[in-house]
Amino acid sequence: MPAHTAPVITARHLTKAYGRGVAARTVLDGVDLDIEASMLTAIIGPSGSGKSTLLFCLSGLESSSGGEVDLLGADPARARPGRMARLYRERVGFVFQEYNLIPYLSARRNAALPGLLAHRPDAVSRADSALSELGLSEHASTRASRLSGGQQQRTALARVLAGRPEVVFADEPTGALDTAASAVVMGGLRARADEGAAVVLVTHDLDAAALADRVVLLRDGRIQGVHGRSSAPELAGLLEGEDAGAQR
């Protein structure tokens, strides 16, 4: 596991509830969490445990009901929109299961688009490098609508890698992929963490979670344990309530 460094993301007493009064449903219940650079952190838990909600609150894509989040020195709930826009454009990347590609643009243009919008002179070369890293060079000129699901997800990841963000959030990035495509996507995320980024991954895929430096087990909106690198069978045991050597 990488040496301990100061966290780049912190959450303190984080809560999230939907509805009011007797109809209120608590999804996150007093979460405290630190995320460090140069680490891949996987968040796992049963369906409905609040994993994606935690990811969205940490990233500022969803507002919390209480508590505080510090993302690279900014509280998404209180920072000015312009500051958050710059943060997302320059220092934070997102990988989602839905891909969010522009179908009529090529893989190269999709991967380069954030850099082009930011007027980076090396946007296309960065995109080509990221596509090559993910085995997509021969598809660089192919429209996104003609790519397979796995190729689209790799293109979405290339778009993130081309920006070289300090923080990467990934929500079920392998959920709809076959084993081979999942391995390429996870290899890209693992490499970004090895290069110094903080990568935060929500997943049901225990083989993907097994590549993480640290695994956060969430249950009923509460952190049940924070564990070091573990095998997929060990993680399955954790989900079943067994103790597989938690690092508290």
Write a structural description.
This protein is of the alpha/beta class and 248 residues long. It is built from eight helices and nine strands. The strands form two sheets. A six-stranded mixed β-sheet has the order 5-6-7-3-8-9, with helices on both faces. A three-stranded antiparallel β-sheet has the order 2-1-4, covered by helices on one side. Helix 3 (107-117) crosses helix 4 (123-133) and helix 3 runs parallel beside helix 5 (149-163).
Topology (elements, then pairings):
Elements: E1 7-18, E2 25-36, E3 39-44, H1 51-59, E4 66-71, H2 81-90, E5 92-96, H3 107-117, H4 123-133, H5 149-163, E6 167-171, H6 179-194, E7 198-202, H7 206-209, E8 214-219, E9 222-228, H8 232-239
Parallel strand pairs: 3-7, 3-8, 5-6, 6-7
Antiparallel strand pairs: 1-2, 1-4, 8-9
Helix pairs in contact: 3-4, 3-5, 4-5, 5-6
Q: Which descriptors would you attach to this protein?
A:
248 residues; alpha/beta; six-stranded mixed β-sheet; globular
Low-confidence stretches: 243-248
Number of strands: 9
Number of helices: 8
Q: Class by helix and strand content?
A: alpha/beta
Average pLDDT value?
91
The main sheet comes to:
6 strands, mixed
Shape: globular
Cα distance, first to last residue? Answer: 15 Å
- What is the H/E string? EEEHEHEHHHEHEHEEH
* Amount of beta strand: 25-35%
Q: What proportion of the residues is helical, as a percent range?
A: 25-40%
Strand order of the largest sheet: 5-6-7-3-8-9
The value of Rg in angstroms is 18 Å
Task: Give the gist of this structure.
The chain is of the alpha/beta class. Helix content is 34%, strand content 26%. The radius of gyration is 18 Å and the shape is globular.
